[in-house]
Amino acid sequence: MAALVIIAVVLLVVVIAVFYLGTLFGSKQVSRRCNRLTTIDGNMPDITAAGSFHEFLVKLHTKYGHVATFWYGKTHFVSLASAKAFKDTNKLFDRPAVLFEFMKPLFGEESIQYASGEDGKRRRHDYDQLFSYDAIKNYYNKFQEATDAVAAKIESLASDEHVNITEYMSLLVLKALSHATYGDFFKDDEKAITMLRHYETTMAILNQDISKNTEAGQRFAEALEAWHDFMRAMIQHRRDNPPSDDDWTFIDVLMAKASSEEELLSDTTGFFIAGYHTTAFMMVWTLYYMCENQEVQEKVYQEIIEVIGKDEQVNHVNLELLKYMRCVFDESIRCSVLAPFAARVNMNADMVVQGYTIPKWTPVVHALGVVQMDDEIWPEPERFIPERFLHENASTRHPFSFQPFGFAGKRKCPGYRIAYAEGAVFLATLCRKFKFQMVEGQTIERKYGFVTIPSNDIWVTVTKRD
Ligand code: HEM
What we know:
Elements: H1 2-25, E1 28-29, E2 33-34, H2 44-50, H3 53-64, E3 67-72, E4 75-80, H4 83-88, H5 104-107, H6 117-128, H7 139-155, E5 163-164, H8 165-182, H9 189-206, H10 215-240, H11 250-257, H12 261-292, H13 294-308, H14 323-336, E6 342-345, E7 351-353, E8 356-358, E9 363-366, H15 368-372, H16 391-394, H17 416-433, E10 434-438, E11 446-447, E12 453-454, E13 459-464
Parallel strand pairs: 1-8, 2-3, 4-9
Antiparallel strand pairs: 3-4, 5-13, 6-9, 7-8, 10-13, 11-12
The protein binds protoporphyrin IX containing FE.
């Protein structure tokens, strides 16, 4: 009996020692769980109840801290919401398809969005060259052309007319982006508008049940075919009208490098969708915050006049000098939580993040929006204060505190330079000519999705400047 007691005590001591040393020197398994007992839909009911995936992540991290887990259906995810945790996963390249699965019928199986490993890296290497600082120098003139046309349209309106900036900015980004990245096929408005119609039709059906043999499924297949026919016509136009050497653009590299027609169609579609929606709403939010904060609008105007005067166009050189304008874009992106999350999966080995072991194959969410609204990093996070991004105020912040374009595995958004360049051309041109003011009586809230959009159209009045 005494021997048994001694053995039991020794075992207990060993267990306690292993546990204690383990937590001191080893790493913990991720344990901050937000589990549901059912494995069929996991935390899906909580995501629905929260109103959106971003709002679910806010609740999750408020309750469980910077590293937390949840069930996305049958898939067990880890979500990260701190700059340090982001840094620990900075080398991950592969993206888990499951979060983005519902867009697959539109993007296509072969889209860059779902590409992993060597194939994904090869494609990013090829495409990124067309989004470099040097490569986008050519785009500024096309952005300017589109902006001048929209500015002329605004100028022709009566001074008390209410202008829907969601509509105007969407049209502007659509024209500028399609012309710059897909070439002269989009020189006139008609083609850009046709593309928008195809996109809106397919997106509207995508939100319904499009499984095979359903009526919506049939309509989706037809809409997708029409979209692809349109893209094929654009590609054929480029083949028939090849650009000069100094006018190569994104579509030329896609056509030269894509390994199949399916890949070509997928990436033509994917880059358009990824670039159009995000940049259009970056502009909508920026104008909205500038209307709500007239003193900011005045500072932007003063900077434009000081740096480029009344006539000079924005280009790749003077863009760098418009520092306050850049702060305004960044604060608009932060305050609107424009792109709330990104995701990765660690395919190679278990990894340790802030002391927690994340097993191999576990998908990881980067809760970018949760960190952008963290009041320990951004005091009074709901207030729009562009000065937060001035060098003297930003230099003490952890660089991973603001990563609205993602960051990991050299797979940051390829279009981020285009977004800032396009935005600067638009804002410099429009702010020099006009003063924007909110039409009274509107309540605008954030409506979260992959991209955060305003809850309603935003209406403004426009006054000409001298
Ligand atoms: C303000 C504007 C934009 C924002 C906030 C934004 C945000 C993002 C984010 C968060 C990601 C995911 C990155 C990751 O997985 O770590 C992404 C990916 C992507 N973005 Fe953007 N984006 C913007 C503009 C653009 C533009 C203008 C283009 C193209 C012209 C573009 C094309 C893409 C593509 C193709 C991907 C997927 C890349 C891949 O899978 O490797 N984006 N973007």
